[in-house]
Amino acid sequence: FPILESLGFDGIEWIFDKDSELTNPLLTKIGRNEMLNFSKKYNVKLENIVFDWFLVHPLLVDDEFDVEEKLKKFLFLLDASRQSGFKRIILPLMEKNSITDKNVQKKFIHIIQDNVLDYLEKWKIEIHLETSVPPSEEYDVLKKLNSKWIKSCFDMGNSASYGYDPEICIETISEYLGSVHIKDRKLHGSSVTLGEGNVNFDKVFESL
Predict the structure, then answer these.
(1) Of the candidates 88, 20, 12, which has an alpha carbon nearest to the alpha carbon of residue 55?
(2) Across all residues in the chain, what is the average pLDDT?
(3) What's the angle, vertex CA 93, arms to CA 137 and CA 181, rounded to 5?
(4) CA-to-CA distance for 165 and 159, rounded, in angstroms?
(5) CA 36/CA 30 separation, integer angstroms
(6) Selection from 159, 178, 161 nearest residue 91 by Cα
């Protein structure tokens, strides 16, 4: 937090992932209070939180945890995030947690509609979907969910790595666009230093 303040940033995007599943301060009341205290002390707002844990344990696929257990985990994290003051949840739907399969898409839509939308409405919290599907499919999912609390997170690096045209992506999902991740990636490759990958930054920012 002091480093962010010294660099002139006034917000942070938190991550809950596999590496921090036992130590993340989000998990306890003491930890959440500590996050809030540091946020106030250094004037760095708790902006977004990314649920990267589900990249390792996909929400809709049984592994060592079944889908019901993971839904409980999701709802717990959602409530813990609310208690920490986060208003935007980034849910990555890619890699093992992707919704490329149509049946998985339907299952995801039903789970969110049946278990999550009322909570979002009550507490005025948004979930931003970061997907790997083509923009037309992402738009279709967002439209079927039909909620002002479900939006899209456009990650320009991931989009470039899948070979998507940023102008088409942004134009297609524009009415649902909620947040943007700035990074660079190689086509079909991993993240790299800004300017060394396949992101067309001029085109991206013109489109935005």
Answers:
(1) 20
(2) 97
(3) 95
(4) 8
(5) 10
(6) 178
pLDDT tens sequence across 16-59? 999 999 999 999 999 999 999 999 999 999 999 999 999 999 99
Which helix (H) or strand (E) is 180 found in, with range? strand 177-181
Give the Cα separation of 85 and 106 in Å (integer): 30
The encoded tokens of residue 202 equal 């001029």
Taken as a whole, the chain contains a residue count of 208
Residue 86 tokens, joined: 């986060």
Amino acid, res. 99: I
> What is the structure's pLDDT at 202?
97
* 3 state SS of 151: strand
- Nearest residue to 13 (alpha-carbon basis) of 80, 88, 120, 93: 88
CB burial of 153-175 (b: ≥16 within 10 Å; e: otherwise) equals bbbbbbbbbbebebeebbebbee
Token pair recorded at residue 89: 């949840």
